[in-house]
Design brief:
The protein contains three helices and ten strands, in the order H-E-E-E-E-E-H-E-E-E-H-E-E. With 176 residues, the protein is α+β, with helices and mostly antiparallel strands. The strands form two sheets. Strands 1, 2, 3, 4 and 5 form a five-stranded antiparallel β-sheet that branches. A five-stranded mixed barrel has the order 6-7-8-10-9. A hairpin with a 6-residue loop joins strand 7 and strand 8.
């Protein structure tokens, strides 16, 4: 048993996301475990029944619906959107880390209408950190060479979600 949206609710959410595509439909979604999160996956078809893409939605968040042309793009966009949800996208069972470090690289990407910031730090090689502007304006102002105080959550060998970001050069401290 899983609490949250039903298959019918997930299908309606996906159909709402593709409403401008006349004649398109979504199959009855199937529940999968994607990245440790209960997720509905529906196949999108045009009026002739041809495959047009996939729609993904976590059981516990009807506001996060990702639609893509194929499964690999859908999974990438979905995991990025989850990472962009900061605390909502983090798994409470995953460890928290807190550190201060110098930003090595910063990149941005728009995922489902939200800007996701990808950061790496000189003293955390091999780790990638994600954040959204939901944690505050400092993330948008972060540049390589900035010293940041960070709290993040996630697996020790992958992409971590930043939950707090503090740049001592700015007067304000930001937390969700």
């Amino acid at each position: 048993m899983q609490s949250g949206a039903t298959e019918t609710g997930a299908r309606e959410a996906v159909l709402g996301k593709i409403a401008e595509k006349r004649g398109w439909t979504a199959t009855f979604p199937i529940l999968y475990n994607i990245g440790g999160r209960a997720t509905y996956l529906a196949v999108l078809k045009d009026g002739s029944g041809n495959f047009k893409g996939v729609g993904l939605m976590p059981v516990d968040d009807r506001n996060l619906v990702v639609v893509a042309d194929d499964l690999s793009r859908g999974l990438l966009a979905y995991t990025q959107a989850l990472a962009g949800r900061t605390a909502a996208g983090a798994n409470p069972a995953e460890p928290h880390i807190t550190f201060g470090g110098v930003v090595a690289r910063v990149a941005t990407e728009v995922v489902d209408g939200n800007t996701v910031y990808w950061l790496t730090f000189n003293d955390k090689p091999g780790l990638i950190f994600s954040a959204t502007n939901r944690i505050g304006p400092q993330v948008a102002l972060t540049r390589p060479g900035d010293t940041e105080h960070v709290t993040a959550q996630g697996p020790e060998n992958g992409t971590l979600t930043i939950t707090t970001l503090d740049n001592p050069a700015f007067a304000l401290s930001v937390a969700p």
